[in-house]
Automatic annotation (TrEMBL):
InterPro entries: YczE/YyaS-like (IPR038750). The keyword Cell membrane does not apply. It comes from the Bacteria. This is Integral membrane protein. The keyword Membrane applies. The chain crosses the membrane at residues 7-26, 46-71, 83-103, 109-136, 157-180, 186-204. Pfam families: DUF6198 (PF19700). It comes from Clostridium carboxidivorans P7. Keywords: Membrane, Transmembrane, Transmembrane helix.
Length: 226
């Protein structure tokens, strides 16, 4: 029974990576800028013969190495499984780019709708990884490592990381293309919305969980009465 529960948790986690990949791809296809965490891979993919997913994988490896450097002997051994996250995550990002290959909105309102759809998918992916409670995504893991090591708020470190990635992407874009690529108003919208949408998913889950518990208790009382 325990092994079955662990398998289910990993399935939920991988499903989370899948939806994250779809969400990142859809936000990129909106034409309003991609998500902060994907801004650097997106720009680099326009410069080199590697896909967005492949650069996402490389960035995951970099985050993983930073975690080890920061935590050293305190790095949890079970989190070495993060090395498996990068390939899955990168694959799902590229899969999403293929699925949404024909998505190229020209109307601004449609672009916003595509962006919001991507935010909802991305938030669902984040939420599924949280409830799976198995491996930490390297992107979140590096934030948690720095936050714990230097006793800073997780949210502040997350904002700092996202901002750093966006700034690097902007600098590279300006020097390479003479204009900003991948970072636009949609990037800011994505940064603000995803966390809040995740809270909505959590509230919905807790509601149905509590309703289910009530139904179970009522059935139990009915059986006892009978």
């Amino acid at each position: 029974m325990l092994k079955f529960k662990i398998i289910i948790r990993y399935f939920i986690f991988i499903s989370g990576l899948f939806f994250m990949g779809l969400g990142i791809s859809l936000t990129s296809k909106s034409g309003l800028g991609t998500s902060p965490i994907n801004s650097l891979p997106y720009v680099l993919s326009m410069m080199f013969p590697l896909t967005v997913g492949q650069f996402t994988f490389l960035l995951s490896i970099l985050f993983f190495l930073v975690e080890i450097i920061v935590l050293r002997k305190d790095f949890p051994k079970e989190q070495y499984l993060q090395l498996l996250v990068g390939p899955f995550f990168g694959f799902f990002v590229d899969l999403g780019m293929s699925i949404f290959a024909l998505v190229a909105p020209t109307n601004y309102l449609v672009k916003v709708l595509v962006l919001l759809s991507g935010c909802f998918l991305l938030a669902l992916g984040v939420y599924l990884q949280v409830i799976a409670n198995v491996i930490i995504n390297p992107g979140e893991g590096v934030v948690k490592a720095v936050s714990n090591k230097f006793r800073k708020k997780f949210g502040n470190i997350k904002i700092a990381l996202d901002s750093t990635l966006c700034i690097i992407a902007i600098i590279i874009s300006l020097f390479t293309f003479g204009s900003i690529k991948g970072v636009r108003e949609g990037t800011i919208i994505c940064a603000v919305l995803v966390g809040n949408i995740t809270k909505i998913y959590s509230a919905i889950f807790e509601y149905f969980k509590s309703r289910n518990a009530i139904c179970i208790n009522e059935d139990s009382k009915s059986n006892q009465s009978a």
